[in-house]
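Subject: mismatched residue count in predicted assembly?

I count 940 residues in my input, but I want to confirm that the predicted structure covers every chain. Input:
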Amino acid sequence: MSNGAITTTAAGLAGQTIKPKVSSEDWIMRAVLVGIALYLLITMVFPLYAILSKSFENPDGVFIGLSNYIKFFSTPALFWSIQNSLTVTLITTFIVVPLAFVFAYALTRSCMPFKGLFKGIALIPILMPSLLPAIALVYLFGAQGLIKGALMGQELYGPIGIVMGECIFVFPHVLTILLIAMANADARLYEAAQVLGAGKIKTFFTVTLPGVRYGLVSAFFVGFTLVITDFGVPKVLGGKYNVLATDIYKQVVGRLDFEMGAVVGMVLLVPAVAAFFADRIAQSRQVALLSARAVPYEPKPSRRFDMMMMGFCMLIGALILTVLGTAAFASVAKLWPYNLSFSLNHYDFDLMDGGGWDSYFNTLELAAWVAVIGTMAVFTGAYLVEKSKGFETGRSMMQFLCMIPMAVPGLVLGLAYIFFFNDPDNPLGFIYHTMPILVICTVTHFYTVSHLTAVTALKQMDPEFEAVSSSLKVPFYRTFIRVTVPVCLPAILDISMYLFVNAMTTVSAVVFLYSPDTALASVAMLNMDDAGDTAPAAAMGMLIVGTAAGVRLVHMLLSHGLLRRTQAWRYR
Amino acid sequence: MNDSQAAYLQVENLTKMFGDFTALKDISLDVFESEFVCFLGPSGCGKTTLLRAIAGLDIQTRGRIEQAGKDISALPPSERDFGIVFQSYALFPNLSIKRNVAYGLENKGMAKPDIDARVKELLELVGLSDQGDKYSAQLSGGQQQRVALARALATSPGLLLLDEPLSALDAKVRGHLRHEIKELQSKIGVTTIMVTHDQEEALTMADRIVVMNHGIIEQVGSPNEIYDDPASPFVADFIGTMNFLEATIAAPGRVRFGAAELTATDADGLQAGSDVTICIRPEDVTTRGVDAGTDNAIKATVTDLEFLGSVTRATLNVAGDDSLEFRADFSANLMRDLVIENGKDVTVAFPTDHLHVFTERVQTEVEV
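Triage response: the counts match. Full output below for your records.
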């Protein structure tokens, strides 16, 4: 080869942009990624479009512009719900966030004993459908309540009841976020503050608070979203006090006014989406505060402070246990409050409306499917978003799609499914009123948090694993199965657990989608409570809590054993 | 290297853009069979980008790469022929050391006994025969890096790429492993490219060094060439220690530095009166046996002494011009023999064969 020849070819090529060859593996990755993106499009974006267009139509499906919205905003009974919703939501959030903050502070920054126990108790409400604390409050403060005097003549049904119920319901969620934010304290900052002569209070305001400020903001918005979109508590305790979440249900199930239901849904979407974006911003900043060199903070014992903190935790723990205990007691009391002898009559669900024991088994079936299918879809999707090469547009669109479900309230999603899947023109209409639609809806509803868990785990993996594999000519799916999945097993188990528990306890989305054959336990609770069968509703609630707790325990033991076998490399 | 031999790896006019940022500007380079080449440069100089382009991990925007006569410019990594070792080792944590090394072999449909034999051979090669059943977390950093090396070599690739393989290790292990990798490479004769920002690593290991800066190649040459005859002020500054001194051309081949006039072959073709920078390494400044009559002699005063152990680095002011300051390394016995101390007047010389002249004025930056 002469030098001249090289120069000519090189010069000829110099100006030409190289188009990287896409390997067959890349095509497989892209195809799967597109498949999962299509799933999210069909199960979320299209239904949302259906509900949006429905809100601009009359019952005959004719476009009528903003008429429905004008009707909504000119009917006081309807638009007052906005104010009501915001009122109870803000009050709840402003009560819960400080309480959870102190609780998290006690767990992370004190040396009090029994931290694990207190944390466990505080997290119990996660295992409950939100209907359950509400029902327990009825037994405590309702017309025949044990301690109704404590309300000093005030009515439980209405804002007071809603706020009390929501406080219990969202406490563990807010606590979890604050625990994560506080776990990441840098001991060096505290040492510096001490060396510089700052007192405890000054240190708190100059080191502790700034360190967790984004966590606090995030906790606030997550609490806000959970409360404003929650349906269970106001359904039981709302009385005549209308909030947006119950309005959607009333419009659709009570008055069969689907168009107005769609309008209320769109209105509810506004604060949920706003809170979602605020939370994303806060979360992204929280991450930036962490540096790899941080030295973990170790609290030092201080008898007085530790005792104070324990006292506080005991108080909160006692409240939660009281609520749980009341529900448990009511479910086995023969006839509250007249005959409190033990009886399992209320567990004979087949005698009640709502679906009987079948609904419980349907729920188990749903939760199992959601856990299996959801985990596989979520983890594979997250892997492809994180690790596939090129195809930037597709990946960032997928990333965006994965984030949307978090901003969509369950009720809105459920209603959207009616409009989309019950449309006679939809070829997918055959899944309407079946178990698959419940599975699909629930997977989509809880997609975002699972996706973020998977992404976090994947980001912790060495980014060069894929490069090494391809240099060794090992196809990506082999490395995915042999390395990625085993290394991420703890996160995968967490995701499946999260999906399972949420599938068991959720009411909001599925309340519009079940059929007589696919009645669910949480929906049965709702219907039994509606029919005045409060004690069986409590019994069903206890069954859900017990099952969720049991499954959680089994999951814990299983994953412990599994981790010991497959994660031997983690221990020296 | 043998220039008449065809290059094993040819990089032609490679350009890599990240958005508006040009990470590599029209890079051309030949690497020969069995050669050990180091890409050396400060962070952000494009050395890792070039390595990743050669691997196909981040394919170049423009330009051509040919390996063993085959155009691989647009091929994905899986269709190229290389083994790679990263700074992070990237060992699969859930697989034993043996399984890590066997990873690429298992996929090739080799029989199990053959795989076992090959793994055994490789682990022997890197001196870890007895560690095969452990997991990577149980090994030290140096051991992990050796496993990564064995894994990369397992499939007998034509090209071995090392991306800052020693940077995560502590100094002592680094020195040891440096030697081992070099020995291993010459034993099996695999063509190797290593990226490093550590000049000592490059000088001790490489057959040829490619010094890079701001996306271009500043110089390609053997360690001796790079050190003794830097092609640009950047190379002179980046490798070793160098005095950069302002001077003017007195006549072709002669530079005026302060009161002295020095002979410099580099200045042969330069216009009298033009400003230049002259460079000399502190260790090349001579003083023993130097007097006013020696070639390139300069009178100077010692203003500062910095004790570095076997040598002492002296800062000297040129007599009659306080603004001209340079450094010279004096050995311990020279310090003793000549009784060098602060304030002492000495005569030193800048030997012609160690004196470099650059036409640019150079602002030397203090490295932190």
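Chain B touches chain A through 47 residues (CB under 8 Å). Marking this ticket as 'not a bug'.
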